[in-house]
Amino acid sequence: xxxxxxxxxxxxxxxxxxxxxxxxxxxxxxxxxxxxxxxxxxxxxxxxxxxxxxxxxxxxxxxxxxxxxxxxxxxxxxxxxxxxxxxxxxxxxxx
Length: 95
Prior knowledge:
17% of the residues lie in helices and 52% in strands. By secondary structure, it is of the alpha/beta class. The protein is globular.
């Protein structure tokens, strides 16, 4: 199964801006990999929370639509809230 996720580039980096994003229902994330610059992005929480339940989310290549371009990535790490069903941060690696 293939997953397509819409994302936006994030310009503000840091704890305060990440908290503001989470209050707006968004998830801060980053895409990185060898030979490429890391890109800070934001995703909608409602898009991620439903598809991350599937176990093939972690093993297959995902497509992130970023400014009209499709970027192939793979989920590397995910940070969840301690007791709430919330995703707090995701690391993606270029596929």
